[in-house]
Write the C-alpha cells for this entry.
Amino acid sequence: MSLVSAARFWKYPKTVYQLSICRPVLIHFSLIFPYGQIEGKEDEVIAQIRKAVAPDHIELEKGIAILAVVGRGMIRTRGTAARIFASMAHARINVKMIDQGSSELNVIIAIGESDFEEAIRKIYEMFINSAE
C-alpha cells in the first residue's frame, strides 16, 4: 500500500526562471516564474530588486521545472520527504528548491528542466511501484 494516496506532477509551460535572493542574517528566498513574465527585462527586474531589498546576492537561473508530490497520506506518515529526496539522490538529480505547505499535503521541489521526466519516474517508482 502506498504511503501517498495520490500523486500529482506538473510543470510550467516551457520552463521557468528561479530567482534566488540572499539577505544578511541568513535570509534566503527563491521566486519562480515563467520566462514570459520577464524575458528581455531580466536586468531591469534585478535592478529593481537590488534597489528595494539590497540583497547580498541575486542569482537568476533558467531551465527550472517544478514538481509537486501531493497526497492525503503524507500528513501522518513519517519519512515521506526522505523518500522523495532519496529517489532524487539515487537518480543523481539535484534539488534546487524545496517547499512544503503547512497542511503537509504536498512537497514541491524545483529541479533542472532536463531532469523532469526522470524525476517523475523515480518518484512514481518510490511511491507507487514500491507499494504493489
